[in-house]
Amino acid sequence: MTGKLVDIRNLSVRFKGKRTVHAINDVSLSMEQGETLALLGESGSGKSVTLKTLLGLLPPKRSEIDGSIHVNGVDVLSLRGKALAKYRGGEVSMVFQEPALALDPVFTVGHQIAESVRRHKGVSRDEAMSVALDMLDRVRIPSANRRLHNYPHELSGGMRQRVMIALALACRPRLLLADEPTTALDATVQIQILLLLRELQKEFGMGVIFVTHDIGVAVEISERVAVMYAGQIFEEGTTREIIREGRHPYTQGLLAANLHDVEQGQRLNAIPGAPPALESKPDGCSFAPRCPKALPECTAGLPPMLMPAPRRRVACIRAGEPVVAE
Amino acid sequence: MSATEDVGYDPTPDTGGPAQPLIKVQNLKKYFPVRGGPLGRVQAQVQAVDGVSFDVAKGETLGIVGESGCGKSTTAKLLIGLTERDQGDIIFDGLALGEKLSLKDLRRGVQMVFQDSYATLNPRMTIEASVAFGARVQGLDKPEDRARKLMDRVGLDPARFAHRYPHELSGGQRQRVNIARALAMSPRLVVLDEAVSALDKSVEAQVLNLLNDLRAEFGLTYIFISHDLNVVRYISDRILVMYLGEVVEVAPVASIWAEQAHPYTRSLFSAMPSMDPDNRTKEPPLSGDPPNPINPPSGCRFHTRCRFKADVCKTKTPKLAGLSVNAKHMVACHLHDADSGHPKAGQGVPS
Ligand SMILES: Nc1ncnc2c1ncn2[C@@H]1O[C@H](COP(=O)(O)OP(=O)(O)OP(=O)(O)O)[C@@H](O)[C@H]1O
Ligand SMILES: Nc1ncnc2c1ncn2[C@@H]1O[C@H](COP(=O)(O)OP(=O)(O)OP(=O)(O)O)[C@@H](O)[C@H]1O
Ligand SMILES: [Mg+2]
Ligand SMILES: [Mg+2]
């Protein structure tokens, strides 16, 4: 047993069906208690699947999982039935990318939070309802008393996200998985929610994995960043290291695709091409076909993992070269 | 063959010429009833959209920004007739909805890409069938062919994606399906409600380049709702700022970027995430809760959170009017109206 909050080793996830999708390929990742990590990466890179695997949410018949996941010493992949239900929403909970997935349209939001508290903590209906009210207050929902009795469709997108955060935190999890919970929010609310999550994270001492594709958001929320591509982690380090000296060409491309100070109509600096199909397990660098720095060796075999400092890694042949300042 | 013919883009013809706005909205209102009590009686009204007016020229892109719950999506849904308006006029290329324009004709001309990419796709339809559906409803020939070409156009390889179901796609991939699906209906106006929010920056850049290309190719007009000001700045010709169901500022991009005339707009612009790990945001630029839209504040609705409020702001509703330096830059704030009675009236927003 480890003292780590999260310890993922050599995780691979494949979806079977008409076509096989190698969604996660040999991912290892660890987190200390109370740490905040941003999982940054392109659409389809496997961020959501990583979180779903951590929560034991993948359809067992259609997915094949290799490797191991421990959360607080619990072997997640071996959990079944009641133990899994207790783990989900108790030890670990998740705020989803799309509220439609988490909130049930036929129950009021208060009822849904209270039910979750009752299930996990075994408290009375009234107590559970007052926890729900307290949680809506904590996520700064105006007139929480009234909103308790609202159905999800009666709330705006931003409020639904806050309700989801309230639902996720109601049972005081050790680990919060947040899947782009602020992407649909306007700037003022986004920054409020990021600050709120920062506060609640400190207050509850929980660890947070925050999935985002927005580097600005990662900067605001997390101490550490892991960059994902094609189901692999390409680079990991502190937020400062990634922002200031991102070494992987993909990380550098992401930083360049930023819209800060771009004139209207000007063509954007998109990384050309699309991510790979993931129909087979990668046997070379998955980014090579799009990479401005690719060498013939890049497709010949998996890139070496360079570790320039403790808890800092880069999967690129050329990462050892000095970074050219612009 | 032009790219236009290639994907079978076949919109309804332009009737009023280039000078006539493609869409004109006047005094649009939507109140949602709030029911309660044992009999489920209407006890109050949420003033979701309250007297919104604007127009969008042909080929123009109007960006809409504003706090969560301020009525952006409701405005969008009113525009496509998905939500029924209580009051106001919707005039599409000179024809008023409910008079010379039927709901069916409006929907032929205006398509929407929704905030929640899941909710709008039929989970039991393949991606190809979903995209082809619109074209088939329109009675266009070879709907599957069109669907595949459009999928290709939005960067989803048909060979890989045509036969997948919505749950087998990532959020960003689903959003591109939604864009293809909207285009399959050959609309003249596309309303994009947080359409790129689920995309990572690199794909977002590709989709924005795509939207720009489609605009150039097809002469499309966009209404672009997004919380990301950098995106709105990039894609829009003008930006409209909403607060609590009302328009507080509308201006050409360069003008509003240089100077936010409304105090709310100013807070909104300073809420952009910092890109500096050593200088993270410490306090939200707007404090206080957004007021309850059931009982919005009197006078200027922003006065409860405004640093520059004076007595007049609590009683008198400011009117949207052009700035003296630039009539195209419109703002609803007493600070800019020399006759408003605000002690600092006519001096603009203090720094
Ligand atoms: N149930 C499933 N069956 C088959 N393939 C799937 C399934 N779920 C996800 N995938 C595929 O796995 C890959 C990773 O998907 P995932 O949802 O993790 O992406 P993501 O990084 O969260 O992207 P986004 O930022 O767009 O949400 C994608 O190629 C996706 O199409
Ligand atoms: N069907 C409905 N019934 C009752 N109230 C509603 C309904 N739809 C929206 N509202 C309310 O109307 C107001 C405006 O909601 P709307 O969804 O238009 O906001 P928005 O600006 O799109 O917000 P967001 O940025 O969070 O998506 C909110 O107070 C919301 O709770
Ligand atoms: Mg995802
Ligand atoms: Mg909305």
Automatic annotation (TrEMBL), chain A:
GO terms for molecular function: ATP binding; ATP hydrolysis activity. It is found in: Cell inner membrane. The keyword ATP-binding applies. Pfam families: ABC_tran, oligo_HPY. Residues 8-255 form the ABC transporter domain. Belongs to the ABC transporter superfamily. NCBIfam families: oligo_HPY. PANTHER family: DIPEPTIDE TRANSPORT ATP-BINDING PROTEIN DPPD, OLIGOPEPTIDE TRANSPORT ATP-BINDING PROTEIN APPD. This is Peptide ABC transporter ATP-binding protein. The lineage of its organism: Bacteria, Pseudomonadati, Pseudomonadota, Alphaproteobacteria, Rhodobacterales.
Automatic annotation (TrEMBL), chain B:
Part of the ABC transporter complex GsiABCD involved in glutathione import. Responsible for energy coupling to the transport system. This is Glutathione import ATP-binding protein GsiA. The complex is composed of two ATP-binding proteins (GsiA), two transmembrane proteins (GsiC and GsiD) and a solute-binding protein (GsiB). Its EC number is 7.4.2.10. It catalyses: glutathione(out) + ATP + H2O = glutathione(in) + ADP + phosphate + H(+). It comes from the Bacteria. One of its GO terms (cellular component) is plasma membrane. Signal peptide: none annotated. Residues 23-269 form the ABC transporter domain. It is an enzyme of class 7 (translocase). The keyword Cell membrane applies. CDD domains: ABC_NikE_OppD_transporters. Pfam families: ABC_tran, oligo_HPY. It is found in: Cell inner membrane. Residues 287-296 have a biased composition (Pro residues). One of its GO terms (biological process) is transmembrane transport.
